[in-house]
Structure formats: C-alpha cells, structure tokens
Amino acid sequence: MTSPTMAIQTVALTRQVTTLDGALTILNGVDLEVKSGESLAIIGPSGAGKSTLLALLAGLDRASSGEIWLAGTALHELDEEGRAALRRQSVGFIFQSFMLVDSLTALENVMLPLELAGSKGAEASGRALLARVGLEDRLDHFPNQLSGGEQQRVAIARAFASQPQILFADEPTGNLDHANSELVEDLLFELNREIGTTLVLVTHDLALAKRCQRQVSMRAGRLEAL
Amino acid sequence: MSQWGLAWRLFRRELRGGQLRLITAALALAVLSVTSLGLVTERLKQGLNEEATRFLAADRVLQSPQEVDPLWLERAEELGLSVAKVLSFQSMAFIGDQLQLVSVRAVTDNYPLKGQIEPLGVLPGRLPQSGTLWFDSRLHHLAKTGQTVELGDAQLRLSGSFARLPDGGFNLFASAPLVLMRMQDVEQTGVVQPGSRLTWRYQFAGAAEALAQFESDLLSELTSSQRWLDVRNQGSPLSRAIGRAEQFMLMATLLGIALACAAVGVAARRYCQRHFDVVAMFKTLGATHRQVRMIFVFHLGLTTLMGIAIGTLLGILLALGMGSLLADALPMAQTLGWRPLILGAATGVVAGIGFTLYPLLRLLRVAPLRVLRRDLEPTGLAGWLNGLFALAALALLAWLYSGSVVMTLVLLAGALALALLLGGVGFVVLSLGRQLGVRTGSALQLALAGLRRRARENLLQLVGFTVALMLLLTVLALRQDLLEDWQQQLPEGTPDHFLVNVAPDLRTPISDFLAERQVEATDLYPVIRGRLSAINGERVQGAVSKEEDDEEASGPDGIRRELSLTYRAELPPNNPVVAGRWFGPNAVEEVSVESEVAERLGVGLGSRLQFVIGGRTLEATVTSLRQVNWETMQPNFFFIFPEATLSPFYPTYIASFKHPEGDPELVAELVRLFPTVSVIDVGAMIAQLREVVDQVSLALAWVLLVVAIASSLLLMAQTEAGMASRRQELGIMRTLGAAGRLLRRAVGWEFFLLGLLSGLLAVCVAELLLVIIKTQLFDLRVQWHGFWWWTVPPVSGLLIGLLGLWSCRRLLAHRCAELLQRQA
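The joint structure predicted for all components is written out below.
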C-alpha cells in the first residue's frame, strides 16, 4: 500500500517480452517511489528500458509482474478502461514527437483532454493555457502551421489542461533546437511548480535532468540512484 | 455534448482535409450504380415491355380451350384492368365459288388492348363492323373488298384487309389465312358447336400492381390446359434480347458494386490506418473505448449517409438524363420507381458497414502504448474476419440486388476463387527472393528491390489492381459478346420476307424468279405436317403432358400440335450439331432434333420417335441434336429427316429472302405471278428488334462507364494506399540525397511492374470468370480473348505506372522533414 504523500510507487516491477530468441527481460524488479510534487528524471542509454518504465507507470502497458501504485490507486489491478479513467483524472503527457491531432487547431488540441473528461469550460481553460505558453495568437492554427517549438508548447498546454497530479514527459526537448528547448523546459518547470504536479521525465539530456529534483539512471532494466 | 461536438468538429476537418472523400466517393458510386442503373433498367424494361406487349396485343393473355368463369373477368375489371376477348377457330369459308380454310379471330369491341392492326390500304374504322370481315394478305389472290363470304350459316361482307394483327404471332406454318370478325357475329355462323376446337384468348392490360395481383389470384386456379402468357413466355423475338440485356445489366451492376465496395474497403483501411496515432493519443488522454467508438462510428456513419445522399441524387439525375436520351427512340415509363432508390440506399448501408467494419474494429483495438512505440499495430483480430465481413456484405448485396441465389453464388465463388488465386500467385511471385539493400544503381533495380521488400503491402495492392482490371475486362467482354450475339442474329442481309406454301412444281420458277432479280434467298425447305405420336414406344400424350404442367417448361405450340417436319441432305446453316453426327448419304429412319426440344421431351441420341403423317406411321432414331437460333430469320425446324424417310409424303416449300432495295414491285410481282404462294413481310419486326438492340447497347455502354469509373476509383485508392507505405522510405532516400528523378522513376517502375503483373493476373481470372458467367448465366459461346494476353498487361502497367508517377510527384513536392515526420 502506498503512503498518502507518494504519487508513484512500484514494487518489484518486471517486464518481459517474448522474442524469437526467447524471453527478454526489459525491466528487472524495479522499485521506485516518487513523492507528490517531486520532479524525477530517468536517464540512461538507449534500450535501457526508460520508455518501457514510463509506459508502465502511465498505465499504457501492463507489467509482467510487480505492483504499481499511481495517485493512491493500484494500477496493476485495473483493466484497460480503469487505467484510461485514471489517466483521464490524474495524468498528463508530453512526447518527443508532440503527438498533436493534425485535424484539430492548437486550441482544440488543448481542449481535447477536458472534452474527453466531459469537463465544462474547456474552451476558456484552453485559451488561458495557450496564453500562458505564449501562443494566444496561434489559437486557430493547425499543427502543420506551427513550428516544432510551438507544437511542443501546445503539447505542454494540453498536458496541463486537466491539471494532472502526475505528468509524464518522454524526451520533451528531443526534437527541438537549443533556444526552443530552453523555452519549453522553462515552461514545463514553471507550470509544474504552479500547479504542483509530480513530474516524471525521461531524457538523454543531462542538463534537463539536472533541473529535476532527483535523478535516477536506468541500466539493463534496473534503476540506480544518481 | 462536448464529445459529440468533438466528433462533429473532427468530422468536418477530416472532410475538408479530404480524408473521407475517397470513401464517400466510392460509396456514392456504389449507390449511384444501383440507383441509376436500377432506375434506367426499370424504365427501359417497362418501355421495352410496352413495346413488346404489342406483339401480345396486351400486357398479359390467358389462353384457354373453353370459356373461363366470368367471375375471373369481373375480378380483373374490379382491379381496374381492361379486358378484351378473342375467340379463334378454323373454318371453311366460301369466297366466291372457292372453298378456303380460314383461321377466324372473333374479337370484342376493345381489341386490341395494345398495338394496332397494320392495314393494307385504308381500313374503314378501328375494327370490322358487325356483319363484315377483314382478311389478311394471304387471301388477296382469292378475295376482294366488297365480296361476300359464307362462313357457316352467316353471310359476311369483306370490308378491308390487313397486313398483320398485333397478336398475329409469327407462325409461318399457319396454313390458313386469318380473318377478323366481331364476337357478336359468331353465334350467327353456327360454326361453334359443342366439341368444336376453339381457343379463347383473354387479353388484359393495366397497371403493373393490378396485373400482379390478378396474376397471383389466378395462377392457382388455372387448369393444365390453360396458359397465362406475358411477353417473356410468348416467345416474342424481343424477349430474349430483353432478358439478356437485363441479365447483363444486373451482372455488370453487381460487378460495379463489388468494385465500388472494394474501393470503400481500401479507402476505409487507409482512413483507419491514418488514425491509429489519433486513437492511441485519445486513449492515452483517458478516452474510454465507448468514446473512441462513438467518434469513429459517427464519422463512418455520416460518411455513409453522405455517400448515400450524393449517390442517390446523382443517380436520379443520371437516370433522368439517360431516360430522356433513350426516350427519343423508345417509349419510356414516365415515373421513377421507389425500388431502385431503396435498393441504392440499402447498398450504401451494407457496403458502408460490411467494408468498413474490419478496419474500424482494428482502429478501436489500437493500444495507447502506440504513442511511445509508433510501429505497434493493433492485435487480437484475425485477418480472415476481414474477408468474412466483406464476403458476407457482398453476398447480401448480390442477393438484395439480383434476388437470384445463382447469381449470388457465382459472384461469391468468383470472389473466393479470385482471392485464393491472387493470394497464391501474388505471394509466390513477390516472394521469389528477398533483397538485401536497396540497390540504388538504377531506377529499375531500386524498383525491383522495393517490390520484394514490401511483398506484403504489394500483395494487397496487386489484389486491388487486379480486381479493378479484371472486373472491367469481364464487363467489357460480356458487353461485346452480347452485342456480337445480337448482331449475329440480325446480320446485314438478314431475310425480311418469307415465302410460304410453295407447291413442289413452283420451286424452279420461284428460284429462277428470285435469281433473275438477284435476290438473296435461303434454300427452299420442304415442309410436311405431322404429329409426334410416341417416344421409345411410349405414347407421346403422357410424355408431353407431364411437361405441360410446368409453366416454365411449356414448349412452343408446335410440339403439342401439328409439327412442321422437313428433310434435307446437308446440315442447315446456323444449326450446329451439338451431339451425335449429321446423316450419312444413305441414312434412313434417322432424325435430327433441336437440342432444347429434345431436352424438354427427354429425348437423347438413340431414342426412337414415332410420327404420324397423313395417317401413316413413321419411326426414326435420333442420331443428332442441333442447336437452333430461332431469332435468325431463316426457316428453322425441330425435326429434320433424311430425304429417303420423308420422300413418300407430299411437301410444300418455304424459304426466306432479303428484300433488295430499289425493287419496290418485287413482292407485288411475286404475288401476281404465284398467287398460291404466301409472302410474309417481317421487315417491321426486324427493324424494331434492331432499334431495341441499339437502345439497349446504349444502356450497356453506360453500365460500362460506371464500371470503368468504379474501377478507376479502386485503382486510385490503391495507388494512394501504396504511396503511403512508400512515404517514409522516400523521405529517407530523399534526405540521404537520392535524386528526385531517380526516386520518381523507381516508383514509376515499381508501379509499372505491379500493373504488368496485375494485368496478367486480371486476364487469367477474367477469362475464368467469363467461362463461369457465360455458361451459367448467359448461355453464350465461350471464347478466349487472345489479344488481351499481349495488350492488357502492358497497358495496365503503363496506366498504373503513370498513376504511381503522378502520385509520387505530389509526394516528392513535400519537404523531406514533412515526409519523415508525419504519417500522410
């Protein structure tokens, strides 16, 4: 059972996949605790299992064994629908490839999680968030009319739209140049502080990792504190 | 509310972005095909039937040897049908001092309900007055207008002559000339006595529903000696043309629908694939399964509705346009029927569900994890389900549209065989070897490497291209064969006059007369009247009456009545022997039988047939079966004997000839020189048949156009889908510095090779399908299309290569980054 101050807790988390050469262990007994409001960076080489861990923590994938507690809920006991409900209520995402819906405008992309949750005032919240990330004059632009940096700022606004307890970010600056990276990082951490979100961030970028309160390293499916 | 708003917003954007256009277009095309062809066929059918009913002088005829219950006629009148009565009997008539057997038609006031009596000269009114008779051209050598004729006890005055009665039929062997009189004069003649051999024909005309209602009430009441006739079983020369045209339109429309459905399937697959990321993102953001399902079902549902609306509207417009085009030459029904509209909409719904269900189910199964692993495909849905849904939808559509289990099965068997054949052949060809590397040395090498690398995707494309080409070829060939079949029946120089009742001593003078005037005539065929009395020693009464109970199998009148028999040394032209062999020079007691009548009578090679001719009995063994095309305007016979067998009997002769242009006096001179010979003009009938064939050909061209459009749509959908799978690779190659020209040419080659292979497979499958369709549905001669084998593959290669090039050019116009970043 997780403590009330704990946003995320995993116990002996394992993920195995079957390949042509037999079973492959990607995560090997990962124990992790992240406190509410804490920011954590997971770093490590490619193929170490960072993204797999992120997917399990966010309920996008199922563990082979072990427990995951997210916002006080036993994620490992939930079915697909239950995990979706938990994500809707408590989780936000930022991806390297932005993952905006091409056929929706910037504003509509930000409104999307609120609309899916059936929240009222989605448009007002969306407008406010886009203004907060400096895109108030880009409300009606479609993703293909925005630069990479702008797209990621829209993605940040979308991630914070439902005021999530926990935010997962997968290489949020991986596709951006230096100037845009800085802008996006600043926004991410500012909003994180303002809303009091727990941030779990996967990155190769050590500078970005250092801006988090805590860093862990992933190697061959195991976590090591730095 | 907000979710519906989201779904609606997404739908509008998708529509504007063009992603749903292809599905809408394909669905609209399927609906349009069914609606417009249904409407045109229905109107054409009504028009042609209207035209053809003139041969019947009514919409339906009830034929009976006795008067029928007057309540039946009251029932018909209650239903709003017009009823006319015709009593036919044969009688001897005194014309001047000559005694002549005549065939009398006594008619009621409203005869004929359809068509007109074709006059010779001017007729005094619509029908003969009471106390008068009209006579046909064959009595001209005996009778004159104004003369008095004794018919039984009555004295009737000849007041006019006619060339043809609308229901005069086409019985060349009717030995007695026709006379027309009023029903009320029959009693006065005293000819009709108990036991007289009479034929009552009750003619009915009116609305289709009323006729159908009357028919369903009546059919169960009919005795085995009564017959219910419509245009089809009346044996009009039009009926076969109409029947085949209908069958063709049905088949072609079905193939068109199948094509459009395939295009819907391809487009829906592409649409759903493009939304894998969106669904993954929605699920990641916490969307429930229900929400995602609602959004995409809403999209595909609205798309289906749009397709139906557009298809129906365009279908009606096209049908109206087509109708006005056809109406110039044919009487078209003025109203548009509801059935094609409902069928069209049903087609849209079935195609919309059947061909989008599988892609949609896959889309709904996209895992949220795809946001992190973009190569993750939906799992847990067996691929054969796709085929099952598509086949089920196709079967339902085929059955809905054709109402024919045979046609549905043919289509399904074709689809299954096609899938297996294409899958097998395509897979073998494409996986001959896997290629390592991309070999950028030349565009062709690059193309070959690409083809092998993408064997699975290419197989799908190959199937799509092949289906499009194959169905187009099938429809093209069927149309051509039907047209040729009709043309063959009525080639230039088709005889348009018959010479009947030629006495043996007039043979040479008539032949000389025709030869002098350079008239193309058939041989003179001897005609001897006789009856079939036994088959294999069993009296024929039983053998034939069994068939009479079956309406479908009821044969031409000649079988049950007196037959026209002939003898001949050589096989007549257009009478191919389908079983056995034609008589040798010393044959006796042999007979050659027309194959269909042989089948109806249950007679085969070696059967012994007994005939009664002039009171004498004659036996012969069946030694050959012939196929006879009854629509060729030449003397045709069910039974042909060797000369030695029939030589003891006295024959008359019959021939047909083509009236030469520029000799208007020919027939008059013939009649003057040979007054005992009857000359029958069937020119009007041939002209009408030609006109109908021309109109139907136009309709067939339209069907072909629809199929061609459906086929192009499928080609385009498939090319688009194919290009999407090449998009990222092109982006990478472009980024790595490959010249645009090289990539374009490589894609061009790749599509050319795919097209070439599809063309070859399409020809193979089309030839097979045509064998099935022609033998099972159309009764057409099977022939191979040699020129297809060397023209279709390169042409399809070129066409598909160009489509690929065009599509690639558009793709390469994008920046590399765009190609790499975004799924199209």
